[in-house]
Amino acid sequence: MTHANEENYHSVIKACILSKRYVNLEKAIILFEEMPNIVTICPTQNLIFADDDDDDAFSCTESKLYPNTQTYDLVLYGLANCKPCVKNAQRAESLLHQMISHHKSGSGHDCHPKSNTFRQVVSAWTKSSSKHALQNAQRLLDMMVVDFPSITPDSSTYNAIMTLYLRQGNPEKVQQLFTQLIEGRTKPDSYSVNLMLRARAFRPNQLTIDEMEEIEDTLLRMRTQYDVRQTCQSYNVIIDAWAKSGLPNSAFRAEDLLDIMEKQCRAGDMSVAPDAYSFTSVLNAISRAKSQIDKGSWAENLLERMKRMHDEGLVEAPTTPVYNAVLNALITSNEKGAHNKAKSLFAEMAASQTANTRSYNIMIKSHSTIIENGYGTLTCYSKPSKAKALLYQMEQNNDTKIAPDAYSYATLILAYSRSNVKRKAMKAFGTLRKCIDAGIKPTTHAFNGVLAACAHTYVDEEKVQAFTILINTLIMIREWAKPDDTTYRMLLKACERLLPSDEAKKAQVVSLVLRELKYQCNDPNFHASMIDKFMTMNSGNKVAIFSDV
Q: How far apart are CA 125 and CA 414, in angstroms?
């Protein structure tokens, strides 16, 4: 008869855990908890009677089975990965404390926490979706550093916590942890350094050009400074930061990094070969280049470059996000024929079924733009009829990939507000209602677009209807969105243009509206600032009706 031993239990538990099925995880835990209750009988040869055939030549020794460190780590891995949740994170931490208790008591159990043990428990918390996940993971790391100085946290432990800090918008804490990692005995990996770069470039629009260049220099010195290799993701972090920075020549700086990636991958280092995100980020930088006239040609050339590299087996084929970024560059370009090229590219995407909701939204946006001459006079209004036709196509299509979203409706509303069509306030409001009827929550931008359509109603016969729509929109915004500064700016502009010229009556109406909306604004100085703006629009004389607002 074969008796169960530690190796048998460990093998079965391992098989259950590696299946990654929750039902098998529970079976593994049952076996794990059963082990201390199992008594094994081991025959031992008695040396005194070694040469005898007597039964006394052997004796039997009873012993209990106890899970060792490796078995504990297996179960902890299962709790962290088979079904991450708060309950399993709590169970994982309970097992950790059980290990620590056995270790400190000197009970003879071959179980003591190691770096991997803590990593699995930290991982269980960071994957748990608990609102206290970050707090608990940080507490475990602190306990590991303080109470177990002989154990060195590995980079994966730090990475899990730094990732969570980034998700919660705390890049400063990421940089602190990275410094702790470097100053300790832990060697960072590429992911650790990438997290640090992301933290430093977390708010790219607030960085100076010197700060951006310093972060880029850190990227280029990763091998010498941290003894880790750059990856495609390393470069993507900085390319994306340049694209969002709004700094002069940011598109050129982003493309310079893309050039380095291409050069290195052609030299054989495929770990830095650019991916679709790399190209998309550079294309986005091109679209945002305010002073660049030839955005469209630049974007088209970059697309052709990606296609050539794909044909050479260096990069993946252009993806829908890449084509969308080219579309966006074309519609924001001032080059002659750029918009027609955008239409042709979009038609190709629609025919090949690679277009998605964003593709349609970009084209709707292309019909919501206005063109001014050098003197600020409008020379071309938006074309809401064309934008509406695109939205209609989205609504009629059964493919969820191109279903309209809140941005689709908000952009059509914006097209109406920037147009010179008749009864544009009514049409903008109708689009808002259509968005709600479709079960889509409208954004603040959608409401602001309706208010803008009201504010830019100049036909006298339409002003009464526009003001009614204005009031209805302000009432609706309570339920669906939160007003911002643009909301109130459009409100005051609409009141200025739609109400009779009598200053006192106009001020009275504005006062009532502001008082009605007062509770929606968190800024205690808001009402004073709005009143000042209204007075600036008018004669500037103080009106007593505002005194109690």
A: 44
What percentage of the chain has pLDDT greater than the value 90? 65
Nearest to 74 by CA among 17, 126, 31: 17
d(Cα 109, Cα 96) in Å, to the nearest integer?
Answer: 14
Beta-bridge partners for 40: 63
Q: What is the pLDDT of residues 283-323, one digit of tens each?
A: 999 999 887 678 999 999 999 999 999 999 999 999 999 99
Report the run of H or E that residue 309 belongs to, with start and end: helix 295-311
Tell me if 409 sits within 8 A of 392, measured CB to CB: no
Q: How far apart are the first and last CA of the chain?
A: 91
Token pair belonging to 169: 């918008």
CA distances to 286, 341, 350, 363 from 344, in Å: 20, 5, 10, 11
Amino acid at 170: N
Give the residue from 361, 303, 193 showing the smallest Cα distance to 295: 303
Radius of gyration of the chain (CA): 33
Question: What's the pLDDT tens digit per position in 183-228?
Answer: 988 999 999 999 999 999 999 999 999 999 999 999 999 999 999 9
**Cβ-count burial of 127 within 10 angstroms (0-12 exposed, 13-18 middle, 19+ buried)?**
buried
- Please answer whether residues 416 and 431 qualify as being in contact, where contact means their C-beta atoms are separated by less than 8 angstroms: yes
Read out DSSP for 373-437? -TTS-EEE---HHHHHHHHHHHHH---GGG---HHHHHHHHHHHHTS--TTHHHHHHHHHHHHHH
